[in-house]
Design brief:
alpha/beta; 6-stranded parallel beta sheet; 14 strands; binds NADPH dihydro-nicotinamide-adenine-dinucleotide phosphate; L-malate dehydrogenase (NAD+) activity
Length: 337
């Protein structure tokens, strides 16, 4: 079997360091699938990247058939099967949201063009670098014609995993006993973590999460704000961001895209909207999706009922994403890349 070519950008960074080992050791694509890892970062990080390559070699992993460090897009995107786009411009003190967006538009416009020029048309992309949904939208726009928009996604799996864990803690079960939480919208503090359609296995029976938790005020209050603000709380405690759980979530996302979701289960993934639930078409929006492991195609779960509370929360995150998209498109026109 020819090795899968897997690109990780920002591979000299914190999240990259925790992602590469899971790809290399078979956790993401299976113990029988050889991988060739391509690690991209900016030229100033070339030495750090080389250190990561040396460590991966020293792990002596039978699934890792090759690993290379690159600092140019052409070499990075050539013939790749999967791309983890982690590298992004970090927010610096005093930086306006618009400046951050403009800096990232430049990066993701250029990477979208590189995908169109060098990658396989079947390449599947997860964007982790923030603002992840809008970065994915821009990359998809510039890869259009070669890589279809539905091959682009942004990560909300960390928020999804956080929501599973919060329901489990409150219901007094283990996380494996909880399924089908949903993250709607943007990977930002406007996201809507929703337990209305979640199920919990308790005492051998499957019950809905609201019954298992028995505290509606929690599920419509602290549960939502805890998931929305978790990243900030971890930074406050660790003085570093949540790189380990972010990397694990990115790997879960691509694992499920590659192998498919379990029967009766859905996961949250930010994908281009097809108009489902009234979300404007094309917006990269987090939905509940199921994935067919044979075709590797995702489908947005249809027909879920939304009460007024959910509709109002979804409207807020939709508005934020539309504004981000419009600002990003404006920045695209102004960017010379
Ligand atoms: P991290 O590896 O910690 O984070 C990388 C990106 O992931 C950031 O945009 C970060 O957003 C985002 N992110 C998403 N979810 C999370 C989460 N739960 N916790 C933390 N971050 C999250 O950043 P580092 O600074 O350690 O590394 C970034 C690397 O990217 C650097 O090596 C840099 O040189 C590189 N880079 C590469 C580029 C390229 O290859 N072309 C372009 C730009 C940078 P947030 O900022 O909001 O925390």
């Amino acid at each position: 079997m020819a090795p899968l070519r897997v690109l990780v950008t920002g591979a000299a960074g914190q999240i990259g360091y925790s992602i590469v080992i899971r790809i290399a050791d078979g956790t993401v694509f299976g113990k029988d699938t050889p991988v060739h890892l391509v690690l991209l970062d900016i030229p100033q990080c070339a030495n750090v990247l080389e250190g990561v390559v040396f460590e991966l070699q020293d792990c002596a992993l039978p699934t890792l058939h090759g690993v290379e460090a690159v600092t140019e897009e052409k070499a990075a995107f050539k013939d790749i099967d999967y791309a983890f786009l982690v590298g992004a411009m970090p927010r610096r003190e005093g930086m306006e949201r618009k400046d951050l967006l403009a800096a990232n538009v430049r990066i993701f416009k250029s990477q979208g063009k590189a995908l169109a020029e060098y990658a396989k048309p079947s390449t599947k992309v997860i964007v982790v670098g923030n603002p992840a949904n809008t970065n994915a939208f821009i990359a998809a726009k510039y890869a259009a014609g070669k890589v279809p928009a539905r091959n682009f996604s942004a990560m909300t799996r960390l928020d999804h995993n956080r929501a599973l864990a919060q329901v489990a803690l409150k219901a007094g079960v283990t996380v494996g006993d909880v399924k089908n939480v949903i993250i709607w919208g943007n990977h930002s503090s406007t996201q809507f973590p929703d337990a209305r359609h979640a199920q919990v296995t308790k005492g051998g029976n499957s019950v809905d999460a609201y019954t298992a938790v028995g505290d509606d005020a929690f599920l419509q209050g602290d549960f939502i704000s805890t998931v929305q603000k978790r990243g900030g709380v971890i930074i406050e405690k660790r003085k570093l961001s949540s790189a380990m759980s972010a990397a694990k979530a990115a790997c879960d996302h691509i694992h499920d895209w590659h192998f498919g979701t379990q029967p009766g289960q859905h996961v949250s993934m930010a994908v281009p909207s097809d108009g489902s639930y009234g979300i404007p078409e094309g917006l990269i929006f987090s939905f509940p999706v199921t994935i067919d492991g044979n075709t590797k195609e995702w489908k947005i779960v249809q027909g879920l009922s939304l009460d007024d509370f959910a509709k109002q929360k979804i409207a807020v995150t939709t508005k934020e994403l539309e504004e981000e998209r419009d600002d990003a498109l404006k920045a695209c026109d102004e960017s010379s890349i």
